[in-house]
UniProtKB/TrEMBL annotation:
Homodimer. The keyword Cytoplasm applies. Belongs to the alpha-IPM synthase/homocitrate synthase family. LeuA type 2 subfamily. It comes from Thiopseudomonas denitrificans. Residues 439-549 are annotated as: Regulatory domain. Keywords: Amino-acid biosynthesis, Branched-chain amino acid biosynthesis, Cytoplasm, Leucine biosynthesis, Magnesium, Metal-binding, Transferase. This is 2-isopropylmalate synthase. GO terms for biological process: L-leucine biosynthetic process.
Protein backbone atom coordinates (compact mmCIF):
# COMPACT_ATOMS: atom_id res chain seq x y z
CA UNK A 1 0.00 0.00 0.00
CA UNK A 2 1.20 3.48 -0.76
CA UNK A 3 -0.24 6.89 -1.48
CA UNK A 4 -2.50 6.93 -4.49
CA UNK A 5 -1.44 8.71 -7.66
CA UNK A 6 -5.06 9.75 -7.98
CA UNK A 7 -6.43 10.35 -4.48
CA UNK A 8 -9.78 11.37 -6.02
CA UNK A 9 -10.49 7.66 -6.42
CA UNK A 10 -10.66 7.40 -2.64
CA UNK A 11 -11.23 10.86 -1.18
CA UNK A 12 -13.33 13.90 -2.03
CA UNK A 13 -13.53 17.42 -0.69
CA UNK A 14 -16.41 18.24 1.58
CA UNK A 15 -18.99 20.26 -0.43
CA UNK A 16 -18.81 24.01 0.06
CA UNK A 17 -22.03 25.71 1.13
CA UNK A 18 -23.62 28.07 -1.36
CA UNK A 19 -23.64 31.23 0.76
CA UNK A 20 -22.61 34.07 -1.56
CA UNK A 21 -23.95 36.73 0.83
CA UNK A 22 -21.84 35.48 3.71
CA UNK A 23 -21.01 38.31 6.10
CA UNK A 24 -18.40 36.78 8.39
CA UNK A 25 -15.35 37.74 6.27
CA UNK A 26 -16.15 41.41 6.90
CA UNK A 27 -16.47 41.08 10.66
CA UNK A 28 -13.84 41.41 13.37
CA UNK A 29 -13.80 39.94 16.86
CA UNK A 30 -14.39 42.48 19.61
CA UNK A 31 -15.12 40.40 22.70
CA UNK A 32 -14.44 37.06 24.31
CA UNK A 33 -16.94 34.25 23.78
CA UNK A 34 -18.42 32.20 26.61
CA UNK A 35 -15.78 29.58 27.33
CA UNK A 36 -16.54 25.99 28.19
CA UNK A 37 -13.77 23.58 29.08
CA UNK A 38 -14.23 20.04 27.91
CA UNK A 39 -10.94 18.88 29.42
CA UNK A 40 -12.54 16.62 31.99
CA UNK A 41 -14.80 14.97 29.40
CA UNK A 42 -13.60 15.15 25.75
CA UNK A 43 -10.01 15.61 26.92
CA UNK A 44 -10.29 12.85 29.50
CA UNK A 45 -11.98 10.34 27.17
CA UNK A 46 -9.01 10.58 24.78
CA UNK A 47 -6.25 9.90 27.31
CA UNK A 48 -4.27 6.70 27.44
CA UNK A 49 -5.05 6.60 31.14
CA UNK A 50 -8.15 8.59 32.10
CA UNK A 51 -7.61 10.91 35.04
CA UNK A 52 -7.93 9.65 38.60
CA UNK A 53 -10.42 11.54 40.82
CA UNK A 54 -7.51 13.44 42.42
CA UNK A 55 -6.22 14.55 39.07
CA UNK A 56 -9.69 15.50 37.90
CA UNK A 57 -10.15 17.63 40.99
CA UNK A 58 -6.78 19.30 40.57
CA UNK A 59 -7.62 20.04 36.93
CA UNK A 60 -11.09 21.31 37.90
CA UNK A 61 -9.60 23.73 40.43
CA UNK A 62 -7.13 24.98 37.83
CA UNK A 63 -9.94 25.61 35.34
CA UNK A 64 -11.80 27.57 38.00
CA UNK A 65 -8.65 29.58 38.72
CA UNK A 66 -8.20 30.35 35.04
CA UNK A 67 -11.72 31.79 35.07
CA UNK A 68 -13.67 29.27 33.01
CA UNK A 69 -17.30 29.49 34.09
CA UNK A 70 -18.76 26.46 32.31
CA UNK A 71 -16.93 23.20 32.85
CA UNK A 72 -17.94 19.87 31.36
CA UNK A 73 -16.89 17.61 34.20
CA UNK A 74 -17.59 14.20 32.75
CA UNK A 75 -19.94 11.61 31.31
CA UNK A 76 -21.43 10.37 34.61
CA UNK A 77 -23.61 7.67 33.04
CA UNK A 78 -20.56 6.10 31.40
CA UNK A 79 -18.47 5.19 34.43
CA UNK A 80 -18.60 5.04 38.18
CA UNK A 81 -15.47 7.22 38.30
CA UNK A 82 -17.22 10.04 36.44
CA UNK A 83 -20.43 9.55 38.43
CA UNK A 84 -18.52 9.72 41.72
CA UNK A 85 -16.61 12.77 40.60
CA UNK A 86 -19.83 14.68 39.91
CA UNK A 87 -21.12 13.59 43.33
CA UNK A 88 -17.91 14.77 44.98
CA UNK A 89 -18.17 18.21 43.41
CA UNK A 90 -21.77 18.55 44.57
CA UNK A 91 -21.55 16.94 48.01
CA UNK A 92 -18.35 18.73 48.97
CA UNK A 93 -19.68 22.00 47.59
CA UNK A 94 -16.64 22.46 45.36
CA UNK A 95 -18.35 24.38 42.57
CA UNK A 96 -18.13 28.15 42.98
CA UNK A 97 -21.41 30.03 42.63
CA UNK A 98 -20.37 31.69 39.39
CA UNK A 99 -19.38 28.38 37.78
CA UNK A 100 -21.69 25.84 36.17
CA UNK A 101 -20.84 22.20 35.76
CA UNK A 102 -21.92 20.43 32.60
CA UNK A 103 -22.23 16.72 31.92
CA UNK A 104 -22.60 14.76 28.70
CA UNK A 105 -24.93 11.90 27.89
CA UNK A 106 -26.01 9.96 24.86
CA UNK A 107 -29.66 10.27 23.82
CA UNK A 108 -30.66 7.09 25.67
CA UNK A 109 -33.15 7.04 28.52
CA UNK A 110 -31.14 4.80 30.83
CA UNK A 111 -28.13 7.06 30.44
CA UNK A 112 -30.14 10.26 30.81
CA UNK A 113 -31.76 8.96 33.99
CA UNK A 114 -28.39 8.08 35.46
CA UNK A 115 -27.05 11.47 34.46
CA UNK A 116 -29.76 13.26 36.44
CA UNK A 117 -29.14 10.93 39.35
CA UNK A 118 -25.51 12.06 39.41
CA UNK A 119 -26.63 15.69 39.58
CA UNK A 120 -28.96 15.40 42.57
CA UNK A 121 -28.52 18.38 44.86
CA UNK A 122 -26.65 20.51 42.32
CA UNK A 123 -27.49 24.20 42.53
CA UNK A 124 -27.28 24.49 38.79
CA UNK A 125 -26.10 22.36 35.91
CA UNK A 126 -26.03 22.02 32.15
CA UNK A 127 -27.11 18.64 30.82
CA UNK A 128 -25.61 18.06 27.40
CA UNK A 129 -27.14 15.46 25.14
CA UNK A 130 -25.97 14.44 21.70
CA UNK A 131 -26.69 12.26 18.74
CA UNK A 132 -24.86 12.20 15.44
CA UNK A 133 -26.77 13.60 12.49
CA UNK A 134 -24.52 13.25 9.44
CA UNK A 135 -25.37 10.94 6.51
CA UNK A 136 -22.46 8.61 7.31
CA UNK A 137 -23.56 8.16 10.92
CA UNK A 138 -27.22 7.79 9.96
CA UNK A 139 -26.22 5.08 7.51
CA UNK A 140 -23.32 3.34 9.26
CA UNK A 141 -23.86 3.70 13.00
CA UNK A 142 -27.55 4.27 13.63
CA UNK A 143 -29.10 2.74 10.51
CA UNK A 144 -31.71 5.47 10.66
CA UNK A 145 -33.24 7.87 8.19
CA UNK A 146 -33.53 11.60 8.82
CA UNK A 147 -36.89 11.20 10.58
CA UNK A 148 -35.43 8.64 12.96
CA UNK A 149 -32.45 10.87 13.71
CA UNK A 150 -34.68 13.86 14.42
CA UNK A 151 -37.01 11.71 16.53
CA UNK A 152 -34.06 10.50 18.64
CA UNK A 153 -33.07 14.10 19.37
CA UNK A 154 -36.64 15.16 20.12
CA UNK A 155 -37.13 12.21 22.44
CA UNK A 156 -33.91 13.08 24.26
CA UNK A 157 -35.15 16.65 24.69
CA UNK A 158 -38.42 15.32 26.15
CA UNK A 159 -36.45 13.17 28.56
CA UNK A 160 -34.36 16.16 29.64
CA UNK A 161 -37.54 18.04 30.50
CA UNK A 162 -39.06 15.03 32.25
CA UNK A 163 -36.09 14.28 34.50
CA UNK A 164 -35.39 17.94 35.19
CA UNK A 165 -38.96 18.35 36.41
CA UNK A 166 -38.29 15.63 38.98
CA UNK A 167 -35.44 17.70 40.49
CA UNK A 168 -36.98 21.18 40.61
CA UNK A 169 -34.48 22.61 43.09
CA UNK A 170 -31.74 22.62 40.51
CA UNK A 171 -31.42 25.46 38.03
CA UNK A 172 -31.24 23.45 34.78
CA UNK A 173 -29.90 24.46 31.42
CA UNK A 174 -29.72 22.21 28.42
CA UNK A 175 -27.29 21.72 25.61
CA UNK A 176 -27.90 19.73 22.46
CA UNK A 177 -25.14 18.71 20.03
CA UNK A 178 -25.95 17.43 16.58
CA UNK A 179 -22.74 15.43 16.69
CA UNK A 180 -20.87 15.51 13.35
CA UNK A 181 -22.62 18.83 12.60
CA UNK A 182 -19.93 19.91 10.14
CA UNK A 183 -20.59 16.80 8.05
CA UNK A 184 -24.37 17.14 8.30
CA UNK A 185 -26.53 18.78 5.63
CA UNK A 186 -26.88 22.33 7.10
CA UNK A 187 -30.63 22.49 6.58
CA UNK A 188 -31.05 19.14 8.34
CA UNK A 189 -28.95 20.29 11.31
CA UNK A 190 -31.21 23.34 11.61
CA UNK A 191 -34.31 21.16 11.27
CA UNK A 192 -33.21 18.83 14.08
CA UNK A 193 -32.22 21.71 16.34
CA UNK A 194 -35.48 23.57 15.73
CA UNK A 195 -37.33 20.41 16.67
CA UNK A 196 -35.31 20.13 19.90
CA UNK A 197 -35.94 23.79 20.64
CA UNK A 198 -39.70 23.25 20.21
CA UNK A 199 -39.55 20.77 23.08
CA UNK A 200 -37.21 22.67 25.36
CA UNK A 201 -38.88 26.06 24.88
CA UNK A 202 -35.86 28.18 25.76
CA UNK A 203 -36.32 31.58 27.38
CA UNK A 204 -34.20 34.70 27.70
CA UNK A 205 -32.95 33.54 31.08
CA UNK A 206 -32.63 29.88 30.18
CA UNK A 207 -31.25 29.84 26.72
CA UNK A 208 -30.74 26.56 24.94
CA UNK A 209 -27.18 25.81 23.90
CA UNK A 210 -26.77 24.39 20.42
CA UNK A 211 -23.26 23.08 20.23
CA UNK A 212 -22.17 22.58 16.63
CA UNK A 213 -19.24 20.20 16.53
CA UNK A 214 -16.68 19.64 13.87
CA UNK A 215 -16.51 16.20 15.47
CA UNK A 216 -13.94 15.35 12.85
CA UNK A 217 -12.55 18.35 11.01
CA UNK A 218 -13.54 17.60 7.42
CA UNK A 219 -13.13 20.91 5.62
CA UNK A 220 -11.31 24.19 5.56
CA UNK A 221 -12.25 26.67 8.30
CA UNK A 222 -14.09 28.97 5.90
CA UNK A 223 -16.50 26.12 5.14
CA UNK A 224 -17.19 25.67 8.85
CA UNK A 225 -17.74 29.42 9.19
CA UNK A 226 -20.30 29.31 6.37
CA UNK A 227 -22.08 26.47 8.15
CA UNK A 228 -22.18 28.47 11.39
CA UNK A 229 -23.44 31.61 9.67
CA UNK A 230 -26.12 29.57 7.89
CA UNK A 231 -27.16 28.01 11.21
CA UNK A 232 -27.30 31.37 13.02
CA UNK A 233 -29.46 32.82 10.26
CA UNK A 234 -31.93 29.94 10.09
CA UNK A 235 -32.34 28.74 13.65
CA UNK A 236 -35.62 29.81 15.24
CA UNK A 237 -35.63 32.16 18.24
CA UNK A 238 -31.95 32.99 17.74
CA UNK A 239 -32.06 35.35 20.73
CA UNK A 240 -32.93 32.45 23.02
CA UNK A 241 -30.18 30.24 21.65
CA UNK A 242 -26.50 30.12 22.56
CA UNK A 243 -24.59 28.96 19.50
CA UNK A 244 -21.56 27.03 20.66
CA UNK A 245 -18.55 25.82 18.69
CA UNK A 246 -16.74 22.57 19.30
CA UNK A 247 -13.93 22.15 16.83
CA UNK A 248 -11.39 19.41 16.53
CA UNK A 249 -8.07 19.73 14.81
CA UNK A 250 -7.84 16.88 12.30
CA UNK A 251 -6.74 19.16 9.48
CA UNK A 252 -4.68 21.32 11.85
CA UNK A 253 -7.09 24.27 11.66
CA UNK A 254 -9.19 23.84 14.80
CA UNK A 255 -8.23 27.27 16.13
CA UNK A 256 -8.86 28.96 12.79
CA UNK A 257 -12.23 27.23 12.48
CA UNK A 258 -13.31 28.44 15.91
CA UNK A 259 -12.13 31.97 15.18
CA UNK A 260 -14.01 32.08 11.90
CA UNK A 261 -17.00 30.44 13.58
CA UNK A 262 -17.05 33.29 16.09
CA UNK A 263 -16.95 35.79 13.24
CA UNK A 264 -19.87 33.90 11.78
CA UNK A 265 -21.97 34.61 14.85
CA UNK A 266 -21.27 31.96 17.48
CA UNK A 267 -21.40 32.91 21.17
CA UNK A 268 -19.51 30.17 22.89
CA UNK A 269 -16.53 27.86 22.44
CA UNK A 270 -15.94 24.42 23.91
CA UNK A 271 -12.39 23.16 23.94
CA UNK A 272 -9.45 22.01 26.02
CA UNK A 273 -6.35 23.63 27.46
CA UNK A 274 -3.40 23.30 25.10
CA UNK A 275 -5.58 21.39 22.63
CA UNK A 276 -5.83 17.98 24.26
CA UNK A 277 -8.70 15.83 23.02
CA UNK A 278 -9.67 13.08 20.62
CA UNK A 279 -7.09 12.31 17.88
CA UNK A 280 -5.39 15.62 17.03
CA UNK A 281 -7.23 17.26 19.87
CA UNK A 282 -10.01 19.71 20.63
CA UNK A 283 -9.53 23.36 19.91
CA UNK A 284 -6.94 24.89 22.24
CA UNK A 285 -8.69 27.38 24.51
CA UNK A 286 -5.41 28.95 25.62
CA UNK A 287 -4.42 29.58 22.03
CA UNK A 288 -7.80 31.14 21.24
CA UNK A 289 -7.83 33.28 24.37
CA UNK A 290 -4.32 34.59 23.89
CA UNK A 291 -5.00 35.29 20.22
CA UNK A 292 -7.74 37.62 21.45
CA UNK A 293 -5.46 39.10 24.10
CA UNK A 294 -2.74 39.94 21.57
CA UNK A 295 -5.38 41.78 19.56
CA UNK A 296 -6.12 43.88 22.60
CA UNK A 297 -9.32 42.03 23.60
CA UNK A 298 -9.77 40.91 27.20
CA UNK A 299 -10.21 37.12 26.95
CA UNK A 300 -11.68 37.00 30.48
CA UNK A 301 -9.32 34.13 31.24
CA UNK A 302 -6.15 34.45 33.27
CA UNK A 303 -2.96 32.84 32.00
CA UNK A 304 -0.61 35.03 34.04
CA UNK A 305 1.26 31.91 35.16
CA UNK A 306 1.03 29.83 32.03
CA UNK A 307 3.87 27.51 32.98
CA UNK A 308 2.10 26.48 36.18
CA UNK A 309 -1.07 25.75 34.23
CA UNK A 310 0.90 23.75 31.70
CA UNK A 311 2.53 21.80 34.51
CA UNK A 312 -0.86 20.84 35.98
CA UNK A 313 -2.26 19.92 32.57
CA UNK A 314 0.78 17.82 31.68
CA UNK A 315 0.62 16.05 35.02
CA UNK A 316 -3.11 15.33 34.75
CA UNK A 317 -3.10 14.33 31.08
CA UNK A 318 0.23 12.54 31.25
CA UNK A 319 0.97 14.12 27.89
CA UNK A 320 3.70 16.66 27.14
CA UNK A 321 3.01 20.03 25.54
CA UNK A 322 5.10 20.43 22.39
CA UNK A 323 8.04 22.89 22.63
CA UNK A 324 6.62 24.77 19.62
CA UNK A 325 3.05 24.93 20.99
CA UNK A 326 1.63 28.47 20.55
CA UNK A 327 2.27 30.76 23.52
CA UNK A 328 3.31 28.02 25.96
CA UNK A 329 5.92 25.80 24.30
CA UNK A 330 9.41 25.97 25.77
CA UNK A 331 10.85 27.45 22.60
CA UNK A 332 8.11 29.78 21.42
CA UNK A 333 9.61 32.95 22.86
CA UNK A 334 13.15 32.02 21.98
CA UNK A 335 15.24 33.30 19.11
CA UNK A 336 18.44 31.53 18.14
CA UNK A 337 18.98 33.18 14.80
CA UNK A 338 21.08 36.28 14.49
CA UNK A 339 18.73 38.65 12.67
CA UNK A 340 15.84 37.77 14.98
CA UNK A 341 18.01 38.39 18.05
CA UNK A 342 19.22 41.69 16.68
CA UNK A 343 15.65 42.88 16.08
CA UNK A 344 14.41 41.63 19.46
CA UNK A 345 17.27 43.32 21.31
CA UNK A 346 16.57 46.60 19.54
CA UNK A 347 12.85 46.12 20.17
CA UNK A 348 13.36 45.65 23.92
CA UNK A 349 15.60 48.71 24.06
CA UNK A 350 13.03 50.90 22.30
CA UNK A 351 9.84 49.46 23.81
CA UNK A 352 7.84 52.06 25.73
CA UNK A 353 6.83 50.22 28.94
CA UNK A 354 3.37 51.83 28.76
CA UNK A 355 2.99 51.74 25.01
CA UNK A 356 1.67 49.31 22.42
CA UNK A 357 3.81 46.17 22.31
CA UNK A 358 6.12 46.35 19.34
CA UNK A 359 9.02 43.99 19.90
CA UNK A 360 9.78 42.28 16.59
CA UNK A 361 9.30 38.51 16.45
CA UNK A 362 7.47 38.41 19.79
CA UNK A 363 3.68 38.50 19.32
CA UNK A 364 3.19 38.67 23.09
CA UNK A 365 5.22 40.12 25.93
CA UNK A 366 6.40 36.89 27.63
CA UNK A 367 6.16 38.65 31.00
CA UNK A 368 2.36 38.91 30.64
CA UNK A 369 2.07 35.14 30.86
CA UNK A 370 4.68 34.74 33.56
CA UNK A 371 7.59 33.97 31.29
CA UNK A 372 10.97 35.52 32.02
CA UNK A 373 13.02 37.20 29.31
CA UNK A 374 15.87 34.77 29.98
CA UNK A 375 14.67 32.25 27.42
CA UNK A 376 14.01 34.88 24.76
CA UNK A 377 17.49 34.89 23.31
CA UNK A 378 19.64 31.81 23.19
CA UNK A 379 22.88 31.46 21.28
CA UNK A 380 24.09 28.77 18.91
CA UNK A 381 25.85 28.73 15.54
CA UNK A 382 22.86 30.45 13.91
CA UNK A 383 23.26 33.47 16.18
CA UNK A 384 24.88 36.81 15.51
CA UNK A 385 26.34 39.57 17.61
CA UNK A 386 22.91 40.71 18.80
CA UNK A 387 22.24 37.57 20.83
CA UNK A 388 25.70 37.45 22.38
CA UNK A 389 25.51 41.13 23.27
CA UNK A 390 22.02 40.76 24.73
CA UNK A 391 23.00 37.90 27.01
CA UNK A 392 26.12 39.66 28.28
CA UNK A 393 24.09 42.82 28.91
CA UNK A 394 21.24 41.04 30.65
CA UNK A 395 23.22 38.57 32.72
CA UNK A 396 26.51 40.39 33.38
CA UNK A 397 25.82 44.08 32.74
CA UNK A 398 28.48 44.15 30.04
CA UNK A 399 27.78 46.64 27.26
CA UNK A 400 30.32 46.06 24.53
CA UNK A 401 30.83 48.82 21.97
CA UNK A 402 29.44 47.99 18.55
CA UNK A 403 32.72 47.09 16.81
CA UNK A 404 33.72 44.88 19.70
CA UNK A 405 30.38 43.07 19.42
CA UNK A 406 31.35 42.16 15.87
CA UNK A 407 34.84 41.04 16.93
CA UNK A 408 33.68 39.01 19.94
CA UNK A 409 30.84 37.33 18.09
CA UNK A 410 33.49 35.67 15.89
CA UNK A 411 34.97 34.08 19.03
CA UNK A 412 31.51 32.72 19.86
CA UNK A 413 30.88 31.61 16.28
CA UNK A 414 34.11 29.58 16.31
CA UNK A 415 33.03 27.93 19.54
CA UNK A 416 29.46 27.13 18.43
CA UNK A 417 30.66 25.90 15.01
CA UNK A 418 33.18 23.68 16.78
CA UNK A 419 30.78 22.28 19.40
CA UNK A 420 27.60 22.35 17.31
CA UNK A 421 25.64 23.14 20.47
CA UNK A 422 24.07 26.06 22.26
CA UNK A 423 26.24 28.28 24.49
CA UNK A 424 24.83 29.65 27.72
CA UNK A 425 25.32 33.19 29.01
CA UNK A 426 27.86 31.80 31.48
CA UNK A 427 29.83 30.08 28.73
CA UNK A 428 29.79 33.32 26.73
CA UNK A 429 31.13 35.20 29.73
CA UNK A 430 33.80 32.54 30.25
CA UNK A 431 34.91 32.98 26.64
CA UNK A 432 35.08 36.74 27.18
CA UNK A 433 37.14 36.07 30.26
CA UNK A 434 39.52 33.68 28.50
CA UNK A 435 39.99 35.72 25.34
CA UNK A 436 39.97 39.25 26.79
CA UNK A 437 40.07 39.56 30.58
CA UNK A 438 42.76 36.89 31.00
CA UNK A 439 44.87 38.07 28.03
CA UNK A 440 47.97 38.48 30.24
CA UNK A 441 50.79 37.52 27.88
CA UNK A 442 53.28 39.02 27.30
CA UNK A 443 52.15 41.93 29.54
CA UNK A 444 50.63 41.06 32.92
CA UNK A 445 49.57 44.19 34.79
CA UNK A 446 50.62 44.29 38.47
CA UNK A 447 50.10 47.79 39.87
CA UNK A 448 50.40 51.45 38.98
CA UNK A 449 50.72 54.96 40.36
CA UNK A 450 49.33 58.08 38.75
CA UNK A 451 50.05 61.76 39.30
CA UNK A 452 48.07 64.43 37.58
CA UNK A 453 49.00 68.09 37.44
CA UNK A 454 48.50 70.90 35.00
CA UNK A 455 46.42 68.74 32.66
CA UNK A 456 49.17 66.12 32.36
CA UNK A 457 49.16 62.57 33.68
CA UNK A 458 52.40 60.95 34.89
CA UNK A 459 51.99 57.20 35.01
CA UNK A 460 54.21 54.46 36.41
CA UNK A 461 53.11 50.91 35.78
CA UNK A 462 54.61 47.71 37.09
CA UNK A 463 54.06 44.75 34.78
CA UNK A 464 55.43 41.28 34.23
CA UNK A 465 56.57 40.95 30.67
CA UNK A 466 56.86 37.27 29.80
CA UNK A 467 57.13 36.67 33.55
CA UNK A 468 59.89 39.25 34.17
CA UNK A 469 59.14 42.39 36.27
CA UNK A 470 59.31 45.58 34.17
CA UNK A 471 58.68 49.22 35.15
CA UNK A 472 56.96 51.38 32.53
CA UNK A 473 56.86 55.14 32.80
CA UNK A 474 55.15 57.71 30.59
CA UNK A 475 53.34 61.03 30.44
CA UNK A 476 50.38 62.21 28.42
CA UNK A 477 47.12 64.11 28.36
CA UNK A 478 45.46 61.28 30.35
CA UNK A 479 46.34 57.87 31.81
CA UNK A 480 45.76 56.03 28.50
CA UNK A 481 47.92 58.44 26.54
CA UNK A 482 50.59 58.20 29.29
CA UNK A 483 50.51 54.40 29.15
CA UNK A 484 50.69 54.39 25.34
CA UNK A 485 53.72 56.66 25.56
CA UNK A 486 55.43 54.30 28.04
CA UNK A 487 55.26 51.27 25.76
CA UNK A 488 57.98 50.12 23.39
CA UNK A 489 55.28 49.10 20.85
CA UNK A 490 53.93 51.56 18.30
CA UNK A 491 50.21 51.71 19.10
CA UNK A 492 47.34 53.94 18.10
CA UNK A 493 44.20 54.12 20.29
CA UNK A 494 41.19 53.87 17.95
CA UNK A 495 38.32 53.78 20.41
CA UNK A 496 37.70 54.01 24.15
CA UNK A 497 34.48 53.22 26.05
CA UNK A 498 33.67 52.73 29.68
CA UNK A 499 30.61 52.13 31.83
CA UNK A 500 29.70 51.09 35.34
CA UNK A 501 28.57 47.57 36.18
CA UNK A 502 26.19 47.59 39.11
CA UNK A 503 25.87 50.41 41.60
CA UNK A 504 26.85 51.41 45.11
CA UNK A 505 29.94 50.06 46.84
CA UNK A 506 29.93 46.94 44.67
CA UNK A 507 30.01 48.92 41.43
CA UNK A 508 32.80 48.09 39.03
CA UNK A 509 34.02 49.80 35.88
CA UNK A 510 34.30 48.13 32.51
CA UNK A 511 36.66 49.69 29.96
CA UNK A 512 37.01 48.77 26.29
CA UNK A 513 39.96 49.86 24.19
CA UNK A 514 40.43 49.32 20.51
CA UNK A 515 44.02 49.76 19.38
CA UNK A 516 46.02 49.34 16.24
CA UNK A 517 49.64 48.11 16.60
CA UNK A 518 52.20 48.75 13.91
CA UNK A 519 49.45 49.71 11.44
CA UNK A 520 47.87 46.26 11.67
CA UNK A 521 44.17 45.30 12.01
CA UNK A 522 42.62 46.99 15.12
CA UNK A 523 41.95 44.75 18.11
CA UNK A 524 39.80 45.21 21.22
CA UNK A 525 40.72 44.67 24.83
CA UNK A 526 38.60 44.71 27.97
CA UNK A 527 39.38 45.56 31.59
CA UNK A 528 37.08 45.31 34.58
CA UNK A 529 38.00 46.70 37.97
CA UNK A 530 36.61 48.62 40.92
CA UNK A 531 38.89 51.48 39.88
CA UNK A 532 38.22 53.09 36.51
CA UNK A 533 41.89 53.92 35.79
CA UNK A 534 42.91 50.36 36.59
CA UNK A 535 40.12 49.05 34.34
CA UNK A 536 41.42 51.26 31.50
CA UNK A 537 45.05 50.14 31.96
CA UNK A 538 43.94 46.50 32.02
CA UNK A 539 41.87 47.07 28.85
CA UNK A 540 44.87 48.50 27.07
CA UNK A 541 47.12 45.57 28.02
CA UNK A 542 44.31 43.17 27.05
CA UNK A 543 44.15 44.75 23.58
CA UNK A 544 47.92 44.95 23.21
CA UNK A 545 48.44 41.33 24.26
CA UNK A 546 45.73 40.22 21.86
CA UNK A 547 47.41 42.13 19.06
CA UNK A 548 50.73 40.45 19.88
CA UNK A 549 49.36 36.88 19.70
C1 LIG B 1 -17.85 12.78 19.77
C2 LIG B 1 -17.82 12.36 21.21
O1 LIG B 1 -16.86 12.64 21.83
S1 LIG B 1 -19.16 11.65 21.83
C3 LIG B 1 -18.74 11.17 23.44
C4 LIG B 1 -18.04 9.88 23.41
N1 LIG B 1 -17.63 9.51 24.74
C5 LIG B 1 -17.77 8.29 25.17
O2 LIG B 1 -18.28 7.43 24.48
C6 LIG B 1 -17.19 7.99 26.50
C7 LIG B 1 -18.11 7.19 27.38
N2 LIG B 1 -18.86 6.15 26.72
C8 LIG B 1 -19.07 4.93 27.28
O3 LIG B 1 -18.56 4.60 28.32
C9 LIG B 1 -20.01 4.03 26.57
O4 LIG B 1 -19.97 4.27 25.19
C10 LIG B 1 -21.45 4.20 27.10
C11 LIG B 1 -21.50 3.80 28.56
C12 LIG B 1 -21.93 5.64 26.98
C13 LIG B 1 -22.39 3.33 26.31
O5 LIG B 1 -21.90 2.06 26.33
P1 LIG B 1 -22.65 0.83 25.60
O6 LIG B 1 -24.04 0.82 26.04
O7 LIG B 1 -21.81 -0.34 25.82
O8 LIG B 1 -22.69 1.23 24.07
P2 LIG B 1 -21.51 1.55 23.10
O9 LIG B 1 -20.44 2.31 23.74
O10 LIG B 1 -21.12 0.34 22.37
O11 LIG B 1 -22.33 2.54 22.20
C14 LIG B 1 -22.86 2.20 20.97
C15 LIG B 1 -24.35 2.18 21.00
O12 LIG B 1 -24.83 3.45 21.41
C16 LIG B 1 -25.56 4.04 20.32
N3 LIG B 1 -25.25 5.44 20.41
C17 LIG B 1 -24.07 6.03 20.16
N4 LIG B 1 -24.19 7.33 20.37
C18 LIG B 1 -25.43 7.56 20.73
C19 LIG B 1 -26.11 8.71 21.08
N5 LIG B 1 -25.52 9.88 21.08
N6 LIG B 1 -27.40 8.61 21.43
C20 LIG B 1 -28.02 7.41 21.44
N7 LIG B 1 -27.41 6.27 21.13
C21 LIG B 1 -26.13 6.36 20.77
C22 LIG B 1 -25.00 3.37 19.10
O13 LIG B 1 -25.87 3.45 18.03
C23 LIG B 1 -24.85 1.96 19.59
O14 LIG B 1 -26.08 1.34 19.62
P3 LIG B 1 -26.27 -0.23 19.25
O15 LIG B 1 -25.54 -0.96 20.32
O16 LIG B 1 -27.73 -0.38 19.31
O17 LIG B 1 -25.70 -0.43 17.90
C1 LIG C 1 -20.37 15.21 21.97
C2 LIG C 1 -19.81 16.13 20.97
C3 LIG C 1 -20.01 17.54 21.36
C4 LIG C 1 -18.38 15.90 20.73
O1 LIG C 1 -17.59 15.72 21.62
C5 LIG C 1 -17.91 16.01 19.37
O2 LIG C 1 -18.72 15.99 18.46
O3 LIG C 1 -16.69 16.09 19.17
Amino acid sequence: MSMLKNPAKKYRAYPVLNLPDRTWPNRILTEAPIWCSSDLRDGNQSLIEPMSPDKKLKFFKTLVQVGIKEIEVGFPSASQTDFDFVRLLIEDNLVPDDTTIQVLTQAREDLIARTFESLQGAKKAIVHVYNATSPAFRKIVFKQDKDGTRALAVHAAQLLKKYAAQQPDTDWRFEYSPETFSATEPEFAVEVCNAVSEVIQPTDTHKLIFNLPATVEVAMPNVYADQIEYFCRHINNRDKIVVSLHTHNDRGTGVAASELGLLAGADRVEGCLFGNGERTGNVDLVNLALNLYTHGIDPKLDFSDIDHIRQVVEECNQLPVHPRHPYVGDLVHTAFSGSHQDAIRKGFAQQDPDGIWEVPYLPIDPADIGRSYEAVIRVNSQSGKGGVTYLLEQEYGIQMPRRMQIEFSQVIKEETDRSGTEVSAMQIYNLLDTHYLQAHTPYAYQTHSLQESGGESQLQVEVHKNGQPVQLQGAGSGPIAALAASLPEDIEIMDYNEHAIGSGSNARAAAYIELRRDGQRPVFGVGIDHNITTASIKALFSALNRSLV
